[in-house]
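Sequence in, structure out. First:
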Amino acid sequence: MITRVRAVWRDALALLFALTDRRTPAGAKLMAALALAYALLPLDLLPDLTPILGVADDILIVPTLLALAARTLPAPVLTQAQTRSLSVQRRLPWLIPAAALTVLTLLSLLGWTIWRALGS
């Protein structure tokens, strides 16, 4: 499980580094921005409060958009970004659990806030 989380974190960090590169095509930047917006904005195809299906659309759509963005990257940009990502991962091993905890905390707070707003 930890190995899988590290791999996902490495790839996400590499994509972030690649998107800041000026050689990255605009289409890749747009797809990554759409994935981020879809993940963060409260507007979804299926509301998150719908049991299982509400989160399932996020789990399918966001990684698909990110994978499409990664596929449009030039090979030198992707290679350089992956090397940079591995370097950060080696220097900051605490970053993975800290990021996971932060994301889980923010999602919990968001869910609690929505639940309270709908319950009032």
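Second:
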Amino acid sequence: MSLPVFPQLPGQGWSVHKRPTFSTRTVAHVSGREIRVPLYSQALYEFELTFDALTANTAWPGLGANSLQSLMGLYLQCQGQYGTFLYIDPSDKEVMAQTIGVGDGSTSIFTFQRSLGGVVEIVSYVTDVANISVNGLALQGGWSLTEPNKVTFASPPAAGAPIVADFSFAYECRFLDDQNDFENFMDGLWTVASLKFRSVKA
């Protein structure tokens, strides 16, 4: 993966906020009727995390050595809102037996997607593919993963053949602010009351 990955740190606290976000243009008529135009084809996700304890040294091994440097280093690397990184949501990172397309005999590139309730949405960044099958037959080769979220077949799947995948994914995100507060509350220990970031559209 070419993008930096958000670190999984033992000192992360509860709770975690995950906000699906849309943008809708709404115009009201004098009669009370409305015209609503959706501006996003699918949701962007905003995350908010807290960190009860981060350590700047190796004195607190249960928090991970130099966990402060890991988190602050990512923030500095991204230059606040400017750069992007991959966030692997521990509760939402794997998809099994997902149909990602149906062959037509000529198309060889398909975009990974996942079903969530009654919605099918494109995933931001595929980190690993465990299995690809075409028309029920698992393929040992003949395909490649193209960053960030596409599979390319050496030969186009036959018309009408369902393409099914087991895969893991991450959200490509950016921080929401150009500054963030890292609080040193005792010797060698730090806390972050709120760290906000949101997914970006490729």
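Remark: The first strand starts at residue 17 and ends at 21.
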